[in-house]
Amino acid sequence: AQSVTQPDIHITVSEGASLELRCNYSYGATPYLFWYVQSPGQGLQLLLKYFSGDTLVQGIKGFEAEFKRSQSSFNLRKPSVHWSDAAEYFCAVGGNTGTASKLTFGTGTRLQVTL
Amino acid sequence: DTGVSQDPRHKITKRGQNVTFRCDPISEHNRLYWYRQTLGQGPEFLTYFQNEAQLEKSRLLSDRFSAERPKGSFSTLEIQRTEQGDSAMYLCAGQGGKETQYFGPGTRLLVL
What we know:
The complex is a heterodimer. Chain A is built from no helices and twelve strands. Chain A is mainly β. Chain A is globular and about 45 Å long. The N and C termini of chain A lie far apart (41 Å). Chain B is mostly beta strands. Chain B is globular, with a radius of gyration of 13 Å.
């Protein structure tokens, strides 16, 4: 069964500091990997995705993530955090065909940004 | 804006009442998913449609839950005889081809 672990429930960083959010996945085949962001009371916005190819993927708002198959990881990074980045971040894994395309999410990491 | 809309955005109901939520994806979304998100958790898969066919249902989807996508466009999720444990955010996502799922804003349900 597929699963996602986000080990950090809550992270606090200062504005302008760098950020790394961890994500480890378990999946029996080649995974599709995603990072979504959710502001309070809102739906999920896609930050970036990995399907294949270059293991370093760029997303919106200056975020990037690196797929490391050997570590089953897909960590999210940003070199300089802005106060508006404060939100909940979810990593998700899915497949690419049929019923495997449903997403399995981690429990999320809440990011707090101090000024 | 993902183009996926959900209605209503908020619903308060009393235990035992029935509720129905609607999701409108964009026309290119041949797949439509429903997820449930409880406080402090990530979304959990409930069910999904390929056009009008419901292809998979999670064990989370008890027999009080039913979903339809009658013409392969909009979808409805109905909960009968609501319980307090049904209180959650219900999220809908549309997907075209094999690509990304785009989420709507969600319907927040509170069962009193």
